[in-house]
Every structure is written in C-alpha cells, then in structure tokens.
Amino acid sequence: MAFESEKTMFEVYRETTYSSKYRVVYFTELQDHNKESEINRAMAGEHFLDGFIKDQGKDDAKALIDSLLDRMNSGEHLNPDQFLAALGSHLA
Q1: Which stretches of 1-92 are DSSP H helices?
Q2: Whole-model pTM above 0.90?
Q3: Domain assignments of the chain as residue spans, ordered by start
Q4: Sheet holding 7-14, edge to edge
C-alpha cells in the first residue's frame, strides 16, 4: 500500500449546472488560490467516483483519466467499476 504522501486523491463528477460534462478534480494538488472554488464546483456536481492514484506514473494515470472523460463526454457509457478497471495498476 502506498504511503499517504505517495498518492493523489481524485474525484470524477458530472457538472449539473453548465455543460453536464464529466470532470475530474485532484484534491491533493489544489493550491490555496483554487482550493475553495474547485471543491465547491465538485460538490455542486453529481458524484461519479473517487479514489487515489499512485504518484509514481501519475502523469500516465492523469492522461488515462482524461481519455476516459473524453469518451464519456462523447456519449460512451462507462460505469464506475469499468472506469476503475481501466485505471488498473495506476490505483493506489
């Protein structure tokens, strides 16, 4: 299991106020200047899933998450289990 400092917490949510698009927020990467607005945006959305990705290979994991979000925003249906299965070894 990864130490707390070796993983990044994320949430995938669907906007309910603007575009109805799926989005991701990486909570452990938020800075003071955007923390409140990003958390509020996610809280206003419809929760899809959350979890942790390993910091080792994080850029690859984020690219995969972006790819999955693009597919979902283009109309492909993925459930949370399929999303997490696609992340596979990137999960912490």
Answers
A1: 35-44, 58-73, 80-87
A2: no
A3: 4-90
A4: 22-26, 7-14, 46-54
